[in-house]
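Q: what sequence does this backbone want?
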């Protein structure tokens, strides 16, 4: 339990200079970058439980922003973020500080601010919390505002894989022009300017509305072809089975297009096998044969992926395939082995850059590896799942082998690792002293056994 409420009085001399934007920016930026074990003691909190940290930091910025605004600070000054183009409201939304957000909005922060950047350019795009999104809408946030690549918040969240917050729009369609959001998603995909961010690439969630809804689905061949040009695939179950013209499903159309490609795209291979792992209808014998056929196509002269592959895709593959029956896992291991051989040749030929893997949980400046390493790890872990590998652990002798040495008396156990044998010692041991030795179940040591052999006692 925290033994004190955060106290900001020691910063009073800097708070009164709130009108000086650089002074206030430096103060807030410094506090935002401090680790928990430094910022909390600075404000008088000496004891806290881990679950209290978020609330205590929220209280600190709640009190601090209140005092700064009262002393003349312009809270809409763009001084934060990677390029110092974000407002404090966006920074609080990014960190999920709900109380601070409410206070900033009450004191005049612009809920519809837009820095026109290439990523999260509005407060709505900065948060993934539906409750914070509700507050922003209440204070005038525009759901149709777009960033520099034309994405609305709905499209941006889908490309980031933030389904919980993207689904928020589905439950508020009476207040939000949802068809406009669907159309924006389609326009962004077809423009070839937008593509899934690294937490999702080379997969992309695709919204599919029910047939009896008042909205029109945006899935068609043009949309899927645009995804294929960007080397990513739809990953929604309903989208993969969605019927197109000519009685083709989206999955069948994808295979037909990839079959006609003259070169191979490694990102599409990873996306394809992820879709296979997702849906039973997408991992038939024909699908396995198709991806093995696709592997034989040559690499293009220039291999320039739109983004790094997501480590989350390989994690998804591991947990999905590991849940299959052993016979299916063995079939997957055959496929992964072929992938490994191909990726090894390709990576040797063109280098590691086109096969880099990004881990969204790591800092952007830390490397997460490459596709070859991820496939090798996937193969090893799945092999252990079906007990194929004995590379480490216990060396177990099958129980069936015991019948080859079966006798009438007890086990003959060695103390120096020579093995386990079962022999009848009743007739072979002629030494009466040995016969009277108090050895339960006729157990003898390996050294005794060797000595008796040398004396021709056995």
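A:
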């Amino acid at each position: 339990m925290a033994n004190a409420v955060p106290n900001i009085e020691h910063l009073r001399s800097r708070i009164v200079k709130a009108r000086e934007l650089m002074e206030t920016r430096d103060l807030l930026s410094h506090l935002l970058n401090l680790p928990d074990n430094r910022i909390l003691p600075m404000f008088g909190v000496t004891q806290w439980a881990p679950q209290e940290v978020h609330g205590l930091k929220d209280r600190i910025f709640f009190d601090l922003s209140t005092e700064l605004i009262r002393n003349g600070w312009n809270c809409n000054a763009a001084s934060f973020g990677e390029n110092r183009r974000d407002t404090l409201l966006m920074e609080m939304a990014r960190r999920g500080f709900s109380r601070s957000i409410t206070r900033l909005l009450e004191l005049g922060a612009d809920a519809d601010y837009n820095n026109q950047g290439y990523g999260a350019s509005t407060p709505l795009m900065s948060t993934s919390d539906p409750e914070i999104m509700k507050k922003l809408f209440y204070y005038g946030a525009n759901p149709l505002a777009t960033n520099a690549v034309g994405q609305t918040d709905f499209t941006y969240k889908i490309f980031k894989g933030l389904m919980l917050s993207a689904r928020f729009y589905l439950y508020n369609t009476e207040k939000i022009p949802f068809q406009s959001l669907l159309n924006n998603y389609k326009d962004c995909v077809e423009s070839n300017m937008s593509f899934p961010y690294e937490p999702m690439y080379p997969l992309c969630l695709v919204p599919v509305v029910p047939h009896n809804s008042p909205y029109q689905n945006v899935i068609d061949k043009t949309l899927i072809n645009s995804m294929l040009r960007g080397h990513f695939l739809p990953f929604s179950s309903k989208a993969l089975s969605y019927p197109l013209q000519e009685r083709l499903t989206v999955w069948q159309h994808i295979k037909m297009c990839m079959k006609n490609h003259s070169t191979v795209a490694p990102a599409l291979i990873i996306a394809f096998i992820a879709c296979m792992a997702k849906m039973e209808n997408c991992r038939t014998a024909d699908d396995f044969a198709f991806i093995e056929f696709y592997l034989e196509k040559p690499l293009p002269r220039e291999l320039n992926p739109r983004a790094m592959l997501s480590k989350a895709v390989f994690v998804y593959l591991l947990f999905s395939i590991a849940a299959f029956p052993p016979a299916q896992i063995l079939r997957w291991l055959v496929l992964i082995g072929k992938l490994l051989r191909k990726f090894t040749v390709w990576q040797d030929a063109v280098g590691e850059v086109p096969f880099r893997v990004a881990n969204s949980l790591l800092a952007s400046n830390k490397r997460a590896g490459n596709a070859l390493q991820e496939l090798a790890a996937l193969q090893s872990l799945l092999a252990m799942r079906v007990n194929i590998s004995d590379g480490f652990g216990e060396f177990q002798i099958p129980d069936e082998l015991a019948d080859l040495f079966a006798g009438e008396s007890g086990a003959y156990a060695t103390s120096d690792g020579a093995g386990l044998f079962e022999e009848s010692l009743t007739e072979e041991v002629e030494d009466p002293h040995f016969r009277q030795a108090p050895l339960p179940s006729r157990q003898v040591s390996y050294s005794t056994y060797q000595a008796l052999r040398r004396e021709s006692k056995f």
